[in-house]
Write a structure and sequence with these properties.
single chain, 282 residues, mainly alpha, MetI-like fold, 2 domains, globular
């Protein structure tokens, strides 16, 4: 009987394997197509019928991207906005999350639900009033303002994540530190932060991906060309009066995606352990 069961296990996995393969094709298919197109000439990129792989691979599209004088400026803006927004979100979210996890006060649950509810408000609904407000006080095209707006969108989830990670740390550890003479700041800096480091890495990764891929915020609140990001530059190419160069655009997409992909690869271990850390309460 056990032999029959064990022999049936591989057959039972076939549907799951096929389903996983289908999902992999759906997800990775467009990525592979974009990567292949980036190595094609423009003539081959628009050829009918299309070819999957370039007949003669070329790096010319990538060289064109790097030769573009505005590319490095757009790249720097993307990095500055993303890193600045995540740093500000962590600066606010870590103490707020810690307070939510360790302190009890009247209206705490209502406050936390309110913070969570703010993240559910569509950003598009706030574009027009925020635009007119910034325009009236002369703060359009301000990199600092864009960074603050991007940060405000990820602060609610940061507070909730950090609160869950802190709750997973046994409170007895802090009690022992208090008995040894440590103050609250020392406990947070030297004890809590090292213990929830994987969680912080997970929150930072989600924040970087969210802000890096943001288009509408920068396009609306920083319409000046010198303030745009890679995402805004990419979308602008679609509306270029000269026309779209698909091979060049795909090379641009690949380059614009690489920083996030490389970052995720570097912190993958921490990211996975961070997402599961808050699920198990010490």
């Amino acid at each position: 009987m056990s032999a029959a069961i064990s022999s049936g296990r591989p057959n039972g996995r076939i549907p799951a394997i096929l389903l996983s393969f289908i999902f992999a094709v759906i997800v990775l298919g467009p990525v592979a197509w974009a990567l292949a197109t980036s190595f094609k000439t423009e003539v081959e990129a628009v050829a009918v019928p299309p070819t999957l792989w370039p007949s003669t691979a070329t790096l010319e599209n990538y060289l064109k991207v790097f030769r573009d004088q505005s590319f490095l400026r757009d790249f720097w803006n993307s990095v500055a906005y993303s890193v600045g927004a995540v740093a500000l979100a962590l600066l606010v979210g870590i103490p707020a999350g810690y307070a939510a996890a360790r302190f009890s006060f009247k209206g705490k649950r209502t406050l936390m639900l309110t913070i969570l509810a703010t993240s559910m408000v569509p950003g598009v609904a706030l574009l027009v009033p925020t635009f007119y407000l910034l325009d009236s006080i002369g703060l359009l095209n301000s990199g600092i303002v864009v960074t603050i707006i991007l940060s405000a969108r990820i602060i609610p989830q940061t507070v909730w994540f950090i609160a869950n990670f802190v709750e997973a740390v046994p409170v007895e550890i802090e009690d022992s530190a208090f008995m040894d003479g440590a103050n609250r700041f020392q406990i947070i800096w030297h004890l809590i932060l090292p213990l929830i480091r994987p969680g912080i890495a997970a929150v930072a990764t989600i924040g970087i991906v969210t802000t890096w891929n943001d288009y509408i915020t920068v396009a609306v609140f920083a319409p000046e060309v010198a303030k745009r990001t890679l995402q805004v530059a990419l979308v602008n190419q679609v509306f270029d009066a000269v026309g779209i160069s698909w091979s060049y655009m795909m090379a641009f997409v690949v380059i614009a995606s690489m920083p996030v992909i490389l970052m995720f690869g570097l912190v993958q271990k921490w990211f996975i352990s961070g997402l599961t850390a808050g699920a198990v309460k010490g």
